[in-house]
Amino acid sequence: MRLGPLFRVLGTLLYGFIGYELGIALAGTTQITSSNALQIWGATVIGAVIGFFLSPWLVMAPAMAARNSLRSLPIGDLMSGTIGLAIGLLIAALLAFPVSRLPDPFGSILPFVAVIIFGYLGAAVLVTRQEDFFGFTKLGSRAQTAEVAETSKESMLLLDTSVIIDGRIADVAKTGFLLGKLVVPRFVLNEVQYIADSSDTMRRNRGRRGLEILDKLQNSPEVKVEFLDQDPTDAHAVDDKLVSLAMEHGAAIVTNDYNLNRVAKLRGVLILNINELANAVKSVYLPGEQLLIKIIQEGKELGQGVGYLEDGTMVVIENGRRFLNQELPVQVTKVLQTNAGRMIFAVPEA
Predict the structure, then answer these.
(1) Of 35, 193, 213, 341, which has the highest C-beta tally within 10 A?
(2) Which CATH number do you get for residue 315?
(3) Same domain? 200 vs 273
């Protein structure tokens, strides 16, 4: 539904009425005579014209701004503001009759001004002092208890763009190890869609894979996926917005991004890194153990051969070059943990 014409008509009627009231106040009488008709109706027409042409800026712009603000407004602030507004309007209604007894133009204008002032003060005071108010009415403790129970029942895991594109999150979620609901902020989804629409073939394929992973997660019975429309206004970059959301909701961030990992930890946000999880669940081999490996390429050093385990762990075999493209038993001599992952050094079985 297009609201522009409706708001234009309402603006015309509203400002026409205001112009009429001003014309009555200037004429000093409610009786329309030939001497004051031009003054009253002229003010009415001028007000209606102003409302007709300026209503998109005077009505539509504040309405759109209010709608965008309400989307990101916490439910506690929204409830407090609504209750405070109702209290302020009640006080203004009680004051309307005695104030209306004042001589014109004060008697006709001040009740409207009182509605605006007391409505704003009621909403502002209750939003800023909502903890004291709900604590006084014993509603705060109940709401807080329910919130803690809900939080302990189901934690929130914010998904980063990198972990969505990576794809392994779907396999991890299927195992049931992710205890909580997966939350995808709208700005993360927009970034994945932007990558999927890229002119670069590789980026486009990665973005489309990310959208397919989200669709797979939504259809998976083992995990609950939600989309969050909240967009923090105190940050511009996607990583900063994720950290801000995590701090606000007490959530953890699931990511593969090294920089986001470091920044979030510095700000006290819990990070679940899929790469660290993959390294943690790799098979553990100790020096002296035996394994069967196929050498598929030459190593950097003279005579070395290189093979890989099923989990992708690199195995460097000393004097293994002569066994290229062969599968042979080897004995582990050393296990090295690096930033890139785990490396195993071995020698062929004698």
Answers:
(1) 213
(2) 2.40.50.140
(3) yes
Domain-ending residue, one of 233, 258, 279: 279
Query: DSSP assignment of 278-341, as one string?
Result: HHHTSPP--TT-EEEEEEEEE-SSTT-EEEE-TT--EEEETT-GGGTT-EEEEEEEEEEEETTE
State which of 251, 279, 307 marks the end of a domain.
279
Distance CA 211, CA 23 (A): 61
Counting other chains too, the contacts that 167-174 makes at CB distance below 8 Å and 24 or more residues apart are: 167/209, 167/210, 167/213, 168/274, 168/278, 169/213, 169/217, 169/254, 169/274, 170/213, 170/216, 170/217, 170/220, 172/274, 172/277, 173/217, 173/220, 173/222, 173/223, 174/220, 174/222, 174/223
pLDDT, one tens digit per residue, over 113-167 is 888 888 888 888 877 877 776 665 554 445 454 444 444 445 789 999 988 998 8
Whether 269 and 294 share a structural domain: no
Q: What is the maximal distance between C-alpha atoms in the chain? A: 121
Does residue 78 sit in the same domain as residue 93?
yes
Residue 75 banded pLDDT, cuts 50, 70, 90: confident
Whole-number pLDDT of residue 85: 84
In terms of residue numbers, what domain contains 225?
155-279
**Residue % of the chain over a pLDDT of 70:** 86
Residue 60: the pLDDT is 67
Cβ neighbour number for residue 235 with a 10 Å cutoff: 15
What is the reported pTM?
0.46
Q: 159 with 189: CB under 8 angstroms?
A: no
271 and 159 in a common domain:
yes
Confidence grade of residue 347 (pLDDT, cut at 50, 70, 90): very high
CATH code assigned at 211: 3.40.50.1010
Q: Which residues contact 315 (CB under 8 A, 6 or more apart)?
A: 291, 293, 306, 307, 308, 309, 330, 343, 344, 345, 346
